[in-house]
Amino acid sequence: MSLPPGFLDELRSRSSLSQVVGRKVIWDARKSNQGKGDMWAPCPFHQEKSASFHVDDRKGFYYCFGCHAKGDAITFVRETENVSFMEAVEILAREVGMPVPKQDPRAQQKADKRTQLAEVMEQAVQFFRLQLQTGAAVAAREYLARRGLSAQALERWEIGFAADQWQGLWDHLKAKGVEDELIFGAGLAKPSTKGGRPYDTFRGRIMYPIRDARGRAIAFGGRAMDPSDNAKYLNSPETELFDKGRSLYNVKEARTAAGRGQPLLVAEGYMDVIALVEAGFGAAVAPLGTAITESQLQMLWRISPEPIITLDGDTAGQRAALRLIDLALPLLEAGQSLRFAMMPEGQDPDDLLRAHGAPALQRLLDGAMPMVRLLWQRETEGRVFDSPERKAALDKALREKIKLIKDPSIRSHYGQEIKDLRYQLFRPQQAKKAFTPGARSGGQGRWNAAPQGPSPSAKSSMLVTAAGLGATEHLREAVILCALLECPALVEEFETGLAAMQCQDSHHGRIRDLMLRHMHLEPAALREKIYGALGEQTLENMRSQRHVAVTPCIRTPGNSDMTRMTVAEELGKLEAVRGLDAEIADAMEDLTGVADEGLTWRLSEAARNADRAQRSGQEDTAEYDIAENGAHISRDERSAFDALLGAIRGKGAEEDK
């Protein structure tokens, strides 16, 4: 229904979110500050012991740092009470004494009809369940027994049977006084096109009730007992209750199980879901006979931030997974994605569970593939990239897919991952100069190479690299953390960069994690959190390092603009230098073969990129070598790089002799 302008804003302002949430949680007295409306508790949506669920009463929003549930008072009531939006509004309005505007007569009539349709559907559920116990259902019961369903499972899933009769359900409902319009409106029968009596939609089928998130029966799925039937599975037609593209099988129970910490699994059909749940994987759902729609995908993400798609290991299952990638890419958000667990060829989850049990499926789930890897697999599997044109075509196809991602941070991470995978595919194959004519490898146009150990010069460069490359990065991490400790209001702004920062020091990692978790606190309160976790001396030792202590925004804290510039600059330098480190590591691997111009160019280019990325401000010249173009790389890093580059060139010269 349409509500008057301003009604929802007034409702939210009158409702105390902490009071609404407080009915479902126990507040953590140590972390919460009721006077500021800053409340913490274990999350009501997933099982946990720590208090990671945060309520900001002043802003009227909640957020869980564990499962990423978020919303306002209306959202909280909807999710915890399994009610519709309007029902949640009515619940809150009653609590604060606000009258809800009355629906217009047509809207009220429509709501009343939906209630009547739901009641008719419940009568049909009971009728089909009773039919499963009759003599006409012997073959159906035998089939279900072969599928491993116990009497308890049949009861739990409310499985029934529609006898092979034209008017079995119709006559039953008419005897109960149900109007024709409601039977047709529920999708349970169809009018005859030849002037005869209406006939049942489902005949000669095992019946699976489909319920919505509120637990109402809204449709049926029927499996044909006759193997020659054109439709092996048949769903109810779309009705006022049932929208196939907006419904999921077992959604209500799956949401509850996911809230208790179980992974959300997406299967293809009813029996897969039933098998998964019976095997202990309670958070399982399935779309209803079609590819997953955008509405269903959003439903999945409201239940869990990273559902696992458990698709059949056949061609159709793989095609469905690949289509889903294109649907999901534009909708990705930080922490919101998909993983894919592909079943063995020719098997679905039900087959796998019956053949090998739950441990086998759990191993597949543990190794579920992130979406970026499946995207890469789709574009490269079974193809040969032995020409510049083919490589360029791959680059173009991947660029077009990555462009679909709207979130700039995710788009950047996808680009980096694809770049890494591309390098692994196309990295130069080292070749031995002394070769036997005609000894080409496998039709790829690459010389066969005999593995060789590193030369003495290469070994010495490795020792130089190990000696001091980490010291500068350690200092940069300390500057970033100490700067943000003085201005925690900026932590949220740099959340993505901080989360991606690979801390060399375990203490740095702990401090970073605490900052991300408690970014709402004032500087003094945040320091107290860190003192409590690591001790006061750890933080003071980090802050007292000379290069850290002289940093302007740390020496004279409080200037948020200066802090922002410092943190952005240092994060950029870290990323650039670690990009150089990655190239050096790859180069060290390549030393097992013969150095080539490509390897030398790659290292030189990496150094130039690091130099350009780090150009800013003035560093302490006692610790930093200032290159000709004004960039800053530590002397240890520059020495290690030069030594390694020299070793490569020397090794190439040795082998040319």
Automatic annotation (TrEMBL):
One Pfam family this sequence matches: Toprim_2
PROSITE patterns cross-referenced by the UniProt entry: TOPRIM
Enzyme kind, highest EC tier: transferase
Keyword Zinc-finger: yes
Cofactor note: Binds 1 zinc ion per monomer.
E.C. numbers: 2.7.7.101
Keywords: DNA replication, DNA-binding, DNA-directed RNA polymerase, Magnesium, Metal-binding, Nucleotidyltransferase, Primosome, Transcription, Transferase, Zinc, Zinc-finger
Region ranges (Disordered): 434-460, 610-630
One Gene Ontology MF term: zinc ion binding
One Gene Ontology term from the biological process aspect of the record: DNA replication, synthesis of primer
Matching NCBIfam families: dnaG
PANTHER family, per the entry: DNA PRIMASE (PTHR30313)
Function (record text): RNA polymerase that catalyzes the synthesis of short RNA molecules used as primers for DNA polymerase during DNA replication.
Family under the similarity heading: Belongs to the DnaG primase family.
Protein name: DNA primase
Organism field: Sulfitobacter marinus
Primary gene name: dnaG
